[in-house]
Specification:
With 496 residues, the chain is mainly alpha-helical. The chain contains 18 helices and four strands. Helix content is 64%, strand content 2%. The strands form two sheets. Strands 1-2 form a two-stranded antiparallel ribbon. Strands 3-4 form a two-stranded antiparallel ribbon.
Amino acid sequence: MAGRRRGGRPGVIDLGPRTTPAPAPLVEPGAGLVRVAVGGGLLVVAAAAALLALGYPPVLALGLLVGAPVALAGAWLLHRRPELAAWAAVLVFSTSAELRLRLDPTIGVLKDALVGLLVVLALVAVRQRPSTLRRLSPLALPAAALAVLVGLYALDPAGAHGTSWIFGTRLLVEVLALLLAGALLAPRATLVHLVRAMVVVLPFEAAFAWAQQIAGPASLIYGWWGYEYGSQVRSTSGGGVRTSGTFEDPFQLAALAVLGLALALFVASRWQAAVLIASAVAVLGATSVRTAMLQAGLLLVVYAVKRGFAREAAALGAVAAVAGVFFLATTTSAVRPGAPEEPLLLTLNGRSDAWALAVDGWDSLVVGNGVGARGTGSTRTEVAVTGPPQFDGSAPDAAFAGNPAFLDSSYAQVQSDVGIVGSAALLTALAATAVFLVRRVRLDPTDGAAWAALGVLAVSVVDWIGRSSLASYTTGFLTLYVLGVLLGAVRTQEQP
């Protein structure tokens, strides 16, 4: 009968024997990670086999088999310990030129892979901790100005999106990406490791550069070293020799010395500062780069201001400026071989003629000549991995004033690429960053990171006048990364 109840509690309908759900199958910890690792390993093996099948050299397949696991392990390590990115940046950027020459030109791709990895890690860090980005809100104006500059390079209003555009835009975007990654990836802890990395690398570079000096230019060019005159080995106006350590030219090595000196004066401990200063002096002696010596003097002026000697520093700066003008007025040089010698004050070794190439009429002033049409980008006509400079029995072609590849100024390069709006955006970013740092050191004179950032910014602004080093490898890469770490480490507010 409907509703009839059988045994049990009154009013409760018996639905039959009860069943309990089966327990979920146990999943071994890390099983998903193992599956991903196995799948990735199979893909790497398949890619290596494809390279062999397509006729590529076996060394590429072997490099892929060995390099892929190392790269994945390195990426995982940097994800867990982002402060170690300082070691990766300093080691990769400072040794890649020598490794390209000794091992294989494709090693140069490591720098691009490292930049991409650091950007990804920075984005992950921001997603996990939004406060990381909020700490940098005082730098919103320079960030916006740099975003405008990048947008102009992407649009390229006066040019075509060809190989030169790819090359010129890639360099600018990569250095600005390093600035961002340095500011976001655990900058305070990274700064500690950055100083340690420089304490290791800069003395090595100094010793290597002086070993090259002892070997002499004949051995460096014609012997086992295999360097190219005009690149790794250069001569001074007085007939001396400039050596480059593990870099591609002496100017890049001198830039590393300037960065090491900035860290030594403002953020390093006493013994670290002693090592960095001694190594920087040795490097400057081996490279004989006058601009780097000027930058070192400017850092000393900033240091004097930090120590409370602002008036003395201003007087010293004025005396140095007068001495510099006198030196330029009394020193002569030829713009190109065979040309009459002229005072450096009038031609700046041909740079005044080169800078004029950046502007070619009103259209050029407003929208530029196109990204890569002149200057650095114009030196690349195809997308390919280029080999390192090495001696082949002939002297290298030199770019002199009047050659579109010889702008030799970061400001002129930006003007030529994207016009007056791009130049204004760059100057706005520099001025806004300088204002931010000046306010910080006034508010907290003990903030060494702010002083160091101010020093690096000051020497960069000077360096960019006479060299296209803003978007360059390795000078721009190292400088913007160090500047980013220092900006991120500035105590804008207490970090949670």
